[in-house]
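Can anyone check this?
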Amino acid sequence: MTDRASELHHAGDEPHLLREIMRTQQAVINVFSRQVGMPAARLALMRLLASCHPQAVGIMWIARQLGVNAAAVTRQVKAMENERLVERRPDARDGRRIHVKLTADGANLFLQLHERAHTLERALGTAVSAEDLAAAVRVLGQVRAVLEALQ
């Protein structure tokens, strides 16, 4: 074995939790988008706007709530505006700021997609016991807390 290969070799008894989380995340992203009909990131934006509906909210506020940068929110909002899912309007006091809200069509679409997401969750619940789901949620919360503390 080369030196590099010996560095990669392991005893085989390590749990590889992070690797399994990343593999699962990729599977969730793929299945979620296909089953729900929208990528999870966009649905998260729609969920946030739906929770504020009919009030308009600022791009910076959205970015902070979602934990993403404002440019990413702006790109999503522009695409959603082209689809007539959201309305953008300048702030009355500061024209450089933009406020966003769901349109009626956007709110209706969100309700449909939200129900599809719940249907997917219920399907998981039929395949995995309630106890195992609760344990997974608890463990993933602990892992997230540790990782956030490392930042």
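Reply from J.R.: I decoded it. The longest strand covers residues 86-90.
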